[in-house]
Amino acid sequence: MSIAGLRDNDGRKSALNVHALRADAQRESLGLLALLSPGLVLVFAVIIVPIGWLFWLSLFDEAGQLSAANYARFFEQASYIKTFVTTFKVAFVVTGACVLFGYPLACMLSQLPRRAASICLIFVILPFWTSVLVRTYAWLVILQRKGLINSWLIDLGVISQPLPLANNFAGVVIGMTHIMLPFLVLPLYASMKTIDVDCLRAGMNLGASPAATFRQIFFPLSLPGLASGVVIVFVLCLGFFVTPALMGGGKVIMWAMRMEQTTSLYSNWGAGAALGVVLLGVTLALLGLFQRLLGARATGVWSQR
Amino acid sequence: MLLSLAQSALPIGISGVEKRFGGVSVLHDLSLDVAAGEFLTLLGPSGSGKTTLLMILAGFVRANAGSIKVGGEEIITMPPHKRNIGMVFQNYALFPHMNVFHNIAFPLKQRRVSAAETAERVERALDLVQLKGLGERRVDQLSGGQRQRVALARVIVFEPRIVLMDEPLSALDKSLREHMQIELRNLHRRLGMTTVYVTHDQREAITMSDRVAVMNAGRIEQIDQPEALYARPTTKFVAGFIGESSFIPVECRNDSVWYEDRKLRMAAAAPSAGRHLMVVRPEKLRVIDGVEQAGDVNALPAIVGDVIYQGDSFVCYATLKDGRQVTLRDYCRSDVLAKLPAPGEPITLGIDAQDVVLVADQ
Asked: Are the beta carbons of B154 and A206 separated by less than 8 Å?
């Protein structure tokens, strides 16, 4: 029996159970595919199909004719270009403000003892549990012409005229920074937590002052977390709607607001779809750029642990 | 010069250091002097305070009281980056975002050493730890042993006055660890830096050190040269922690020491009256016959329990008359094997008078 098993039909010497093992490997691949299929169907149904449809819609003008008019409009109408610029300006400023406030916060949280850190983290996460709409209206109450800040400052005699804090660019940035901050702080905190305390100690032991240790060791090691936080915040900013719509007072038109106007006000689905496609394309291009700039270093040097 | 640390090696004077974490006292009024150029090992079980003492020396942990003098200069409140004390960490603590060269150049960069001199000194340090040509490697491309060497090179490159090592070999496998022990020892002989080494491995401590300080529960139990520590432990803890030991209760009265009704022959002077423990090392015991009982040998009648063959040697567990178990070990020479006792057989164990060591019975 066993000797016969060693020889195939041609009488050549062959290894044991080759066919059975190959069949087993195929069964395993099929099994994995079967397990993956619900996810794949979902991805196809809610991502691939709608985006394909969006793209398809964007290719038809108002008359229902196949044309590139929806895309040509971006170059022809100054208002589109202005919206585009505004969107990126807001995204840049908000991301910058988030880094400015979020980095020291994450840094402090990462140095706190575990118990204190988790209590403080609750305060970072707490706003997540409140509706964006409610938070935006709350900012409006605080920042508007007769809001809390302006009436206090006037009562204290610091200023005579109310500061323009709401219904303009500043208001949009303040409101959005507040909403985006946790998206930056959480990944940053997580990555700072993985920095080995002994690395910082080694830095000081080898003669680096606390400031030099921060600059040469802590900061470079926190960069991957900072990069992922920045990407999340920036991309979320590009497509943000509620806060700029309410806090901008109609003066700050962002990309998502333009989409809303085009579809619900003018019922021009083709133009709205084109706006969506362009935003998606620009976002993907930016992510790709980030990946090239930071990804290679992030996956190469910092992936040790 | 990288090879001339011997002249700059400094003594360390530790006195009255106390440390409490919360309400728990970790170091009790600890004092210790390390001579210039000495290789001193702090040996103890985990929780004995040896790492805490090292952290206080490096300046990462603030003591509650005490003084640390390096070459006569008080450094207890000096920030770590000004101490000029190199430390090799247990997990190496290499900077993952720098390659080997930049890791080793880091301390020189902080000291504003010129680029040319930096390159030269890093090269020499790499050579010294046998990693020549690996400067451009990323840290995650190195094996555990290579990382250990980089960590070492990073410290010796700036010629610190003192080098601290916190269980630097514990993450390596056994054969590499034994190899690195010898290498570290040789490096110390060549460079002559004052070294404080922390380990919980008694064999490592005995192999490498000029002196070993055995620590237990925040105190130094005994500090001595390895040979003396093994041959003449002064406390039960030291005798039990270094090497194998059986303890036999003895009593001292009228200036002689008694085990039950037998008077012990011993080379050392009898200790104070009262109860003591005799430290019996397995290799100091042997099987004797009636003839040998005269002279300077103490005879202990026993019954053989298990005899375990271990290749190069055998271990024999025997039970004394009072029910206490002792261990005997001998090499498998043919004359020993010929007389190998069988389980259950009554034998007489002998221990030479000069091998009798007594410690206090706590």
From this structure: yes
Render each residue's pLDDT in chain A as its tens digit; 305 residues. Answer: 444 445 555 555 668 899 999 999 999 999 999 999 999 999 999 999 999 999 998 888 877 788 888 888 888 888 888 888 999 999 999 999 999 999 999 999 999 998 999 999 999 888 888 888 999 999 999 988 888 888 899 988 888 888 888 888 999 999 999 999 999 999 999 999 999 999 999 999 999 999 999 999 999 999 889 988 998 899 999 989 989 998 888 888 898 898 888 888 888 888 889 989 988 998 888 888 887 876 555 443 443 33
Best mutation target among B21, B110, B118 (most A Cβ atoms within 10 Å) is B110
Yes or no: is domain B244-360 CATH 2.40.50.140? yes
- The answer to whether the beta carbons of residues A107 and A193 sit under 8 Å apart is no
Nearest to A301 among B79, B111, B138 (CB): B138
Q: Interface pTM (ipTM) of the complex?
A: 0.83
Non-local (6+) Cβ contacts of B124 within 8 A are B2, B157
SS3 content of chain A, % helix, strand, coil (to 5): 75, 0, 20
Contacts of A199 in chain B (CB under 8 A): 93-96
Residue B318's SS3 state is: strand
Residue A295 structure tokens: 């990804």
Closest chain B residue to A222, measured at CA: B97
Q: CB–CB of A201 and B80 under 8 A?
A: yes
**Residue B352 burial (C-beta neighbours within 10 Å; 0-12, 13-18, 19+):** middle
> Which among B81, B89, B96 is the nearest to A207, CB-wise?
B81
The class level of CATH for A84-300 reads mainly alpha
Query: What is the number of other CB atoms lying within 10 angstroms of the CB of residue A285?
Result: 10
Q: Which residues of B touch A (CB under 8 A)?
A: 58-60, 79-81, 83-87, 89-91, 93-97, 106-107, 110-111, 138-140, 154-155, 158
CA–CA min distance B52, chain A (Å): 14
Please tell me which of the candidates A204, A216, A304 has its beta carbon nearest to residue B80.
A204
Cα dihedral A51, A53, A54, A59 sign: positive
For residue A64, what are the contacts with CB-CB under 8 A and spacing of at least 6? none
CA separation for the pair B319, B217 (Å, rounded)? 32
Report the CATH number of the B5-233 domain.
3.40.50.300
| Domain ranges within chain B, ordered by starting residue | 5-233, 244-360
